Amino acid sequence: MAGIEFDREAFVPISAPQERSIARLLSPILFLFAISLVAFVVYKIYAATKQDNAVAAANTEVQQLQQRLAEMQTRLDQLDKRHKATSTTASVASPDKPASSQSSGSPAKKTIYSVTSASALPPQAKPAVPANTSSLASAPSRANSNNAIASEVTASREAWQATTNRLSDVVGVVGTQQEEINATREAVNQLLTQTHRQVVSFELGRGYSRLPLGPVTLQFKSADPKSQHYTLCVYFEKKCIELKDRALNEVVVFVVTKDHAPLELVATKIQHDQIVGYLEVPSKKQ
Which of 9, 108, 164, 278 has its Cα between 20 and 30 A from that of 51? Predict the structure, then answer.
C-alpha cells in the first residue's frame, strides 16, 4: 500500500512582507503627525481671529476719537469767534458827551457880593463826578469775561493736543497689530499648503535608469545594507541634487528651486542593489 503524500508547503506559515510591517509601524506616527499639524493650524486660525477682533475694537475707538476731535475743533472755532467779537467791542470806547453850553441868548446874571462874619464855616466844594462812570464800571467785567474765555480756549487746546497724541498712539498700535496679523496669515497659509501633500512610492535598482517621480527624477547611486545608508541623485531641470549618506527612515527635506515647495523623501527599505521608499510632493503650488 502506497504511503499518503502531504504537501508540506501548505502548512508552512507565509511570512508577511517586510514592507507591510514597516508601513504598520509608520502609520501611527504619520497619523499623530497629521493630528498635530491640524491642531497647530486650528490654533493659528483662532489666534488670527482673535487679533482681527482686537483690530476691529481699535478701529471703533479711533472713529470715536476722530468724532470727538471734530466736536472739539468746532467748539474752538466758536470760542475764537466769541473772543474776537468781545475784543472788538471793548476796543471801541464811547466818547464823553460834552457839557451843554448855555444859550447865548440868555442874559448874564448880575454879580452880588455878600459879606459874612469871620466865625462862619468855610465853604465846602462838591466832588466832581466823572462823566464816563458807566464805562469804567463795565471795564472790569469785560476783562474778567476775556480772561475766562482765554482760559477756556487754553484748556480746550490742551485737551485737543492730548486727544491727538492718544490718536497717534492708537494708530501706531493698530499698524503693529496689522503687521502681526499679516505675518500670522502667511504662516497659516504655508502650513495649509504643506499639509496638502501627495505620497508617491518608488523602487530604485542599481541597473535601472533614471526614474521620473513627480516634479523630479531619481537615480540610484549606492547603498550599504549593513549601515542602512544610501545615496541618491535627484534631477530637476538637468541639475543633480545629491542626497549623500542618508539613513533608513530618515526624512530628507530638500528644495529644488525657491519658487517650489520643499519635498520630503524617505527610504523604507535598503538593500545591496535596491532602495524602496516614497516621496511627498505638494498637491498644489504655494
Answer: 164
Q: Which residues, listed in sequence order, are joined to residue 252 by a DSSP beta bridge?
A: 265
Residue-wise pLDDT for 42-78, tens only, equals: 888 888 888 888 888 888 888 888 888 888 888 888 8
Give pLDDT tens digits for 165-186.
888 888 877 878 888 888 888 8
Map residue 121 onto helix, strand or coil.
Answer: coil
Tally: H helices and E strands in the chain: 2, 8
Q: Is the pTM of this model over 0.90?
A: no
Per-residue model confidence (pLDDT) at position 119: 45
Do 44 and 65 lie in one domain? The reply is yes
Distances (CA, A) of 107 to 99, 102, 110, 112: 19, 10, 9, 15
Same domain, 33 and 65: yes
Tell me, yes or no, whether 133 lies in a domain. Answer: no
| Same domain for 172 and 260 | no
Burial status of residue 90 (CB atoms within 10 A of its CB: 0-12, 13-18, 19 or more): middle
Radius of gyration of the chain (CA): 51
Does a structural domain hold residue 267? yes
| Whole-number average pLDDT of the chain | 76
Q: What is the CATH number of the domain that holds 47?
A: 1.10.287
Which helix (H) or strand (E) segment holds residue 276: the answer is strand 274-282
State residue 195's pLDDT score.
59
**Residue 10 belongs to a domain:** no
- Domain range for residue 177? 18-90+139-195
In this prediction, residue 118 carries a pLDDT of: 47
| Count of structural domains within the chain | 2
Phi/psi-derived region of residue 104, left when phi > 0, alpha when psi is between -120 and 50, beta in every other case: alpha
What would the pLDDT profile of 130-164 be if each residue is shown by its tens digit? 545 455 455 567 777 778 888 888 888 888 888 88
Which residue reads 488670527 in cell numbers? 48
Residue 244 maps to a domain: yes
